[in-house]
Amino acid sequence: VELTKEIVLSDSSNAVAIRYTLRGENARLEVRPFAAMRDFHHLRNANEPHRMTFETCKGGAVVQDRVSTLPLLHLASGDGDFHDEAQWWYRFRYRVEVSRGMEGFEDLYTPGLFRFDLADGDTCQLTASLDEPVQLAFAATVERRRNRLLELAGALPDEADETQKRLAAATDTFIVRRSRPEGPPLSTILAGYHWFADWGRDAFISLPGLLLATGRFEQAREVFRTFAGRIDGGLIPSRFDDYSEAAHYNSIDASLWFIIAAERYLAATGDAAFWRDLLGPASRAILNAYREGTRFDIHCGADGLLSGGSPGTQLTWMDVALGEEVVTPRHGKAVEVNALWYSAHRILAERYAGVDDGLAGHFAERASLIGPALAKAFWNDSEKCLYDCISQAGPDASLRPNQIFAVSLPHSALPREQQEAVLAKVRDSLLTPMGLRTLSPDDPRYRPRYGGSWESRDRSYHQGTVWAWLMGAFIEAHLKVHASDRSAVREARKWLEAFDDHLRQAGLGFVSEIFDGDAPHHPRGCIAQAWSVAEVLRAKKLVDEAEVAL
């Protein structure tokens, strides 16, 4: 006999249905469901305090842990018989967790099994749901999901290739609803699967590619509201708590990415009312708080540049810490933070021109101070590129990809010759088929592989590991510097080709979080990362637009 298995999630994602189809001789199929009944950060151990139990119901069973507040698990089928046979099965081995140096063995509880007597061509279905029993119509759910993905792919321009359409379909996975104490749930963006929740920095780097490129402007507005409603001292939340509605703050750049995303939203929609009512006031509040000084010693210096943090903090996206040790210290004046700082001021100067000339003049004056200071302070004349960070100890000449944002963002403070030099340095030392390395291979601290124990992985995370999301900024910078060069557009398209094959390599249809620094650049980390999908999609769209413009 041949048995096929298909799985579909409900539209609300609180139920899953598994459908089996038999080909060949008549056969009895026994399906035993296992219940972990825990959150995604932990594993179940049969010896830990619990009261796992079940009750039979029509067509199946209801499973719960009576010492927890977790939802009930409903298991049901209208095609077979449930036989109660409660058991614990021990030591399930999760090989990926084990390979990552994590706890990788779990005990699972099963209330019993379902029996199905099938003839050739017969199908049967088992449905599992949280909170309430669900009767999931398998074929109708599949059809709705297929139509939804086709709708997302169809939102792209006609010149979009197959990879762009697949990435557009993938975007829906990251858009979820977050409950709020002050009102109804709003859309937010999960940073990655399997273990990231909604992070502010990731959300606003991802928003243009996930939502603007696919025409979901109402959901984009909801994401802005989700985070803008929790601005505190100019800081948008770095992340929301996994177990409550509390917001956590630990980022210098997430608020500035909010302003960049706001500008891209306005450019895509022309929605002046939303800018007037929310985006503009929030952006002004961020820049004013940063200039006056806010938590984590984030402040504007006499030279106009933005500084923040201390040797014990990690406020930029290179934020790994092992206990008290910051693996990639970047306190002080970080290059991409000041590129964002400058661009944000230019954006507000432009957006308020003709609306509030006093505000426009204020932000233009600030930008005229920040721009020359950035170009002077960060220029490494001996290497013809930008310093990565400037602290009280002096400039950090580590060759990292962060300098590319001084070219790629909507406004650059660098003269053209410096933009060209930065682009060339990043291309020659950091570019790979899967994104940009986080450190030059010539640096003695460079780590060519990401893997091993938790500590080994954390020490590699920003010390050479390739990040796919950086490809968006690199392609954008390349196209800006070579705007009228047809061969440069072809070159940019070629640099993105490796992602066509990658969609079949890790999380099917998705782009991974990170890759090894050395070839063959094996995918690592999350199998589906929001800003990886978003920025590769946006980069491909930029290439198409550049080609059309020639």
Structure commentary:
With 550 residues, this protein is an alpha+beta fold. It is built from 16 helices and 29 strands. The strands form 10 sheets. The chain has a 6-stranded antiparallel sheet, covered by helices on one side. Helix 8 (335-352) runs antiparallel to helix 9 and helix 14 (486-495) packs antiparallel against helix 16. The mean pLDDT is 95.
Number of helices: 16
The structure class reads alpha+beta
How far the N terminus sits from the C terminus, by CA atoms, comes to 58 Å
The gyration radius over C-alpha positions equals 26 Å
Q: In total, how many beta strands?
A: 29
Describe the structure in brief.
It is built from 16 helices and 29 strands. By secondary structure, the protein is of the alpha+beta class. Strand 13 and strand 14 form a beta hairpin.
How would you summarize the topology of this molecule?
Blueprint: E1 2-9, E2 15-23, E3 27-31, E4 52-57, E5 60-65, E6 73-76, E7 81-93, H1 95-99, E8 105-118, E9 123-130, H2 138-154, H3 162-171, E10 175-180, E11 183-189, E12 192-193, H4 200-212, H5 217-228, E13 239-240, E14 247-248, H6 254-269, H7 272-292, E15 299-300, E16 306-307, E17 321-322, E18 325-326, E19 333-334, H8 335-352, H9 357-377, E20 379-380, E21 385-386, E22 389-391, E23 394-396, H10 405-408, H11 416-430, E24 431-432, E25 435-437, H12 454-460, E26 466-467, H13 470-481, H14 486-495, H15 498-502, E27 514-515, E28 523-524, E29 528-529, H16 530-549
Antiparallel strand pairs: 1-2, 2-9, 3-8, 4-5, 5-6, 6-9, 7-8, 10-11, 12-29, 13-14, 15-16, 17-18, 19-22, 20-21, 22-23, 24-25, 25-26, 26-27, 27-28
Helix pairs in contact: 2-3, 3-16, 4-5, 4-6, 4-16, 5-7, 6-7, 6-8, 7-8, 8-9, 11-13, 13-16, 14-16
